[in-house]
Amino acid sequence: MPSVELKFVPVGYVNPKSITGKTQRFSHLSPLSFASRESQGKFFVVFSITGQGGNQLSFEIFNQDDTLVYSGKRFFDQAGLGTIKDRVDISTGIFHKAGEVLDTIEFEPGIATRMIHGKAVVVLNNTEVSNIVTFSMERTPTIGTGFKRGQAYQAPITEPAVVTITEPPVPEISSIPEVYAEEEFKTKWYMVTFPSGKMEERKVSQKFINTMSVRGWKFELIDKPPEPVNLDKVTTDMIKQELLNFTIVNNRVQGSIKFTTTDLFNPYYYNKPLTNYLQLKSNDKSIHIKSNKLIFFPPKVGIDYTEHVISFNEDTYGLNIINMESYVRNYADLDMSSVLEFTIEVDKEPTVKPTLTPGKGLMGAGVLGLIGILMLGGFIADHVRRRK
Questions:
Q1: Four-point Cα dihedral 330, 138, 300, 186, nearest 10
Q2: Which of 113, 138, 163 is the C-terminal boundary of a domain?
């Protein structure tokens, strides 16, 4: 499993534990200086790096036309990787988690670049030692005619989730306008084939066809509209889960799960936040639940956003054997995959059980219901008492 965790620090993110301008020397610093941003024609792409084992950040960055505008490798400062406690930098007042450093890629792609997207990974001797992070940023939009250079969007202050995916990239358009109001934009029904190979029937205008054909979209005129579809339809075969590696080391259960969209994935859920829940159980009682955000994006030429890996490092509460269940659910708490159930035991290979039917067991009560059950039943407390 990756030994280093890499995250993209999104535009506008400020850890609420930071202390702005802690010393007089750095009183001019804004916490936004330590988040990704665009200022005076330059892009500043900021990454959080945690864990030892790598010394370079490898990256590829593209513009809105999928043209490579910046790539390479850079050594980053590893001074903070060895820290074992959360801390506030004594000079800048910026909060860092234990073993974390921030690294910034700064470059100026030119005024023709309206947005950037790309991927990055930490390497050591040309070997990847972290998860791969995808990201995107837009050039700061003009506000009327009085926009000031350096003005940036400030997102709500929230703690970023522990995921392999951070800020969502701007995807290729997968939702085609139904009808344009102007006469010149009259629409007809076409079978649309996206560059990814996926197809759907939609009503589009000739101007839209002219615009998107140069990007690899294909259009075939059809005689009648398609049957109505349930846009937010959910089935348990939309996402496949694959156990990559899991083991118990030093009373920590560590491993990764790969999530892949299937041919049955509903495109409605591209760009929408989903949630993965990993449930740890012992004696049929839940002892811990870890949640991670999961977002899929329409594939682009040369970039695959339909597959993601999430890494885990959880306390075993002193147990030598743990039963685990992994779920993927949408915002309505509906299952979008079958349940991945497996058992981890010290010094043994993981054992994967046959596919479970979603809705069974504690997770069938829903996330809020499950949390209530855990609190009322005192499962963790009861489990700890039994180990004594």
A1: 90
A2: 138
